[in-house]
Design a protein that fits this description.
The protein has helices spanning 2-17, 29-35, 37-50, 54-65, 98-108, 118-136, 143-152, 164-192, and strands spanning 77-78, 82-83. It has 199 residues and is an all-alpha fold. It has one domain (29-191): Lysozyme (Orthogonal Bundle), CATH 1.10.530. Strands 1-2 form a two-stranded antiparallel ribbon. A hairpin with a 3-residue loop joins strand 1 and strand 2 (82-83). The longest helix has 29 residues, at 164-192. It is globular.
């Protein structure tokens, strides 16, 4: 019976998350939203609520999880052979850790938010980048510094200049953000057309 219940639970989770597979072309924002139109609605809602550009939301998600809703950091190896603990509790589209996700839910009142739901993930990114702007005075149009704060945390942000790995990641996010921005400007009109009924 427990096996049957677990089976139905997995099916239910897939149903709730809808199209949970990774979009076929994650390097193109227009292609992403063409496949996942509701994602566009959710990203635009987050942008309207928090002021965080859609292209920055997407660039962070691409870097963090590659749009994989079940993404987790790879396990460390014990004696370079045996799978061991994961380096952090990062999970889902946004790769938010448990503590920060809990803080987000408390501060926003979104108590049923889950890291495997795109809608909640982009709202989380909007919330996080807004706090970064307030705490560190980093503009939401500055993808480079916003990502550093996202990756390192507000407390460790000031030490990033000596961390070449993080700098290189942030440069990639900045580049992808600019690409997404240009792409979205090209398909903006078609995306803004209300071609689907949203219940």
């Amino acid at each position: 019976m427990n096996f049957i219940k677990s089976k139905y639970l997995i099916i239910l989770i897939f149903f709730i998350n809808g199209c949970s597979s990774v979009p076929s072309n994650t390097s193109n924002s227009c292609s992403i939203f063409d496949e996942r139109y509701l994602w566009y609605k959710h990203a635009k809602k987050s942008e309207k609520k928090w002021g965080t550009p859609v292209y920055l939301q997407l660039a962070i998600i691409k870097m963090e999880s590659g749009f994989d809703w079940l993404a987790k950091p790879p396990r460390k190896k014990l004696f370079k052979i045996f799978p061991y603990k994961r380096p952090s509790s990062s999970f889902g589209y946004s790769q938010a850790v448990k503590g920060t996700w809990k803080q987000y839910k408390t501060e926003t009142g979104n108590k049923f938010a889950t890291r495997t739901r795109f809608k909640d993930s982009v709202d989380f990114i909007g919330w996080y980048t807004t706090k970064t702007e307030k705490i560190l005075k980093v503009s939401k149009t500055d993808a480079f510094k916003q990502y550093i704060a996202y990756h390192e945390g507000w407390g460790n942000y000031k030490n990033y200049k000596s961390n070449n790995k993080v700098i290189n990641l942030a440069k990639r996010v900045e580049k992808q953000s600019n690409i997404y921005k240009k792409q979205l400007s090209d398909c903006k009109n078609s995306l803004s057309t209300n071609k689907y009924i949203v219940f």
